[in-house]
Amino acid sequence: MKKFAVIAMLMVAVFVTGCAGQSDSESSIHVFNWGNYINPDVVQMFEEEYGITVIYSTFESNESMYTTIAMGGNVYDVLFPSDYMIYRMIQEELLRPINFDNVPNISHVSERFMGLEFDPQNRYSAPYKWGTLGILYNTTMVNSVIDSWEALWNPDYANLIFMYNSERDSMAVALKLLGYSLNSTNEDEINRARDLLIEQRPLVRAYVTDVVKDLMIAGEAALAVVYSGDAVFTMMHNPDLNYVIPREGSNLWVDAMVVPHNANNPEGAEAFINFMLRPEIAAMNTNFIGYTTANATALEMGLIDPALMEMPGFDITDEEYRRLEVFIDLGEFRDVYTRAFTTVLGS
Amino acid sequence: MKSKALAYPYIIWMIIFTVIPILLIVHYSFTVTTGNVTSFTLDNLARFFDPLYVNILRRSIVLAAQATGICLLLGYPVSYILAQKEFRDRNILLFLFVVPMWMNFLIRTYAWLTILGTNGVLNSVLTFFGLPPMQLLFNDGAVLLGLVYTFLPFMILPIYVSIQKIDQSLIEGAQDLGANGFNVFRRIILPLSLPGVVSGLTMVFMPAVATFVVSNLLGGGQFILIGNLIEQQFLLVGNWNFGSALALILMVLIVLCNVLLSFLNKETKEEAI
Q1: Complex prediction ipTM
Q2: Which residues of chain A neighbour B27 with C-beta distances below 8 Å?
Q3: How many domains does chain A have?
Q4: CB neighbourhood size of B102 (10 A)
Q5: Using one digit for the tens of pLDDT, what is the confidence trace for B100-141?
Q6: CB neighbours (10 Å) of residue A156?
Q7: How far apart are CA A140 and CA A138, in angstroms?
Q8: pLDDT (tens digit, 9 = 90+) per residue, A211-262?
Q9: Structural domain containing residue A231
Q10: Which residues of A touch B (CB under 8 A)?
Q11: What CATH number is associated with residue A268?
Q12: Is residue A147 located within the same domain as residue A198?
């Protein structure tokens, strides 16, 4: 049966790749990135300078990207996963160490994002963008100071709260409010966080993902749990919005560039990564998409749009940085989180 | 022999895209992989019988049944009117039913967000007339509306076709024998249109029970349905075994519904004759 499954998958894979048309692997690289996460001009500039064709495709979640890579149907040269997913892919030997002799521009990356828990020696990843998880609020709709996750349990805001429909992020909110680590593997702590979220449910208008941006711009709710990059985007469109990292602490996330183990053109991938780490290129990307770059030089050189620099949450202080925690992949314990969050939504 | 050869591409297509995927789902449902060892297990299926998941399935069925019922109530009269000989603007109306299907389903569903929102189109109209705005989005009703909106054409078209096919002489005969309008409908048109109704019911119920896009967008993630659960297992959790088991359970359920409906269809057909 196993063999049969493999043969069947191969048949489908051959069929699909056959349709896509293989191009010469030496002069092209396959890049797999989040949707709307790059300045398209940058890709063109790279192609012109290096004579390497970039075949660009996008994914919408770390997990769907992981499934694509782990099942091995398509071959990519550069991926842009987040921290915990990089950790998981390193554990499962899906990544290839980067030869940093070919990536000297790694020196521009801020110390803050080097040597984090997901890749302690920085052998596999080159940080791209980073951000935090926090509360986006509409200043015309709140009547108190928003500086704590507790605001999301305030009955005054019943039906005016958007939560983020992602188990790790929603559980992180509850775990942090209870004073626990957002990587907790203690079942009692998880259960208490789950109960807190169930208690919150009547106040929540909806559990949303990307649509939260449009909804908050339209003034549909007073409070929403969002990523700082999305917050910056919405604040650009609606001046009534503000963003805060709650005092209990929150999540710091880092999206980094990595090379999968089966890359066809690792040298091309490294050239691309090095190119992306140039301060001017990093600034072009940040100015275009609004997410903060991990490139310290780009910030120091003043290459970033001043309007972005002024946005709350675009950059953080050292004090805020110390309150943040990076997500770690929990291995088998993931199931406990999934079940807890399914119970919250299914109750 | 010639006609057989023509069927081969179709057979190959079916094997690659229908038979093999179904076999894979069955395979995943009954196995678990630890390390490199894949072994037989019933745990995936057993895991479903947790009240948490059973409840989600029950909710999906109720919601899909409600949507199907509403589609039938709305769709039957429309099909009946469409099929009338003297109805002259039929093509325009049919065209209007089909046109939205040219647009991407996701965009059509997304549009409801702006229509139903607190500051949306509908509430702007309400507040214009001095009425208080209503919470229209992110509840069961919004999901139901989305389902009915999406699947109504799938109810109308088969019923329309089956009514249109009815031999006019049967109706005339009944009228000659003194049946009034109501009796003609009850004794002739309704029984003869039942095959259309049955295929309409299945064409609405099946995709409605498995939907995850509508419940995600219009339900605001609070109304997790069996489709969302399957999506979650495949895309987020990465547990293909449990996801496949859920898909298998849903497939068995749909097959059972189909058998029941076709049985019903046969009964009524025999009765009518």
Answers
A1: 0.77
A2: 1, 5
A3: 2
A4: 6
A5: 888 888 899 989 988 998 888 888 898 889 888 888 888 889
A6: 11
A7: 5
A8: 899 999 999 999 999 999 999 999 999 999 999 999 999 999 999 999 999 9
A9: 131-252+320-346
A10: 1-2, 4-5, 8, 11-12, 15, 61, 63-64, 66-67, 70, 159, 165, 167, 201, 204-209, 211, 214-215, 218-220, 334-335, 338-339, 342-343, 345-346
A11: 3.40.190.10
A12: yes
